[in-house]
Amino acid sequence: MRQVLLLRGINIGPRNRISMPSLRERLTAAGFVDVRTHLQSGNIVLCSDASPEQLAGECRRLIADGYGLNIDVVARTGEELAGVVRRNPLAEVAVDPKRYQVSFCSEEPDEELVHRLSALAAPAERLVAAGRELYAWHPDGIARSRLWAELGGRRMGMTVTSRNWTTVTTLLAIAQE
Q1: Distance between CA atoms of 117 and 114, rounded to whole angstroms?
Q2: 147: domain range?
Q3: pTM for the full predicted model
Q4: Strand, coil or helix: 28
C-alpha cells in the first residue's frame, strides 16, 4: 500500500539536517519498497503494509537510530491523502497554492483547539478543520500570521506538520504513480 510520511521540522536552518538520499537508503535497507522523497523538507512516499501509525513510529525510530534526531512523523495512506485533496474546502478562496496550507495532525483536533486557532486568524485568513487536517488560507502570506505561528508551533497538544497545497498535490501524484 502506498503511504506518505511527513517529517516535521527537518532541513530548516542548521538544525535537524537529514540527507534525503541517505534517508531513502536507510528506509530501503529497512525493507520498505519504492521509497521516494520530494523536496528536502521531509516528504516521503513508499510502499508498506503497516498501519500509518506503525509506519510513523518505525520511521521515527529509524531516524533516531541513524541520525540521532527526535523527529515527529505523521503518516497518511495514499487513499487518505486523496481524500484530503478531494475535500479541498477552501478551493473557491485559496487561489495561490503557496499560501494555502494543510496541517496534518496525528489526531483529530477538538472543537476547543479549532476555536482557539480560528480566533487567531486575521480577517482575510480562513481555517477549516476536516477530520485530522486543518486547511488554512493565508492570502497575505505566513510571515506575520498569528494563525500560522500557532499552526507551525509546538503548542497544539499533538504532532502537527504543514505542507503547502502545491506539495500536497505533488505528493498525491507521486503516490498514485
Answers
A1: 5
A2: 84-165
A3: 0.95
A4: helix
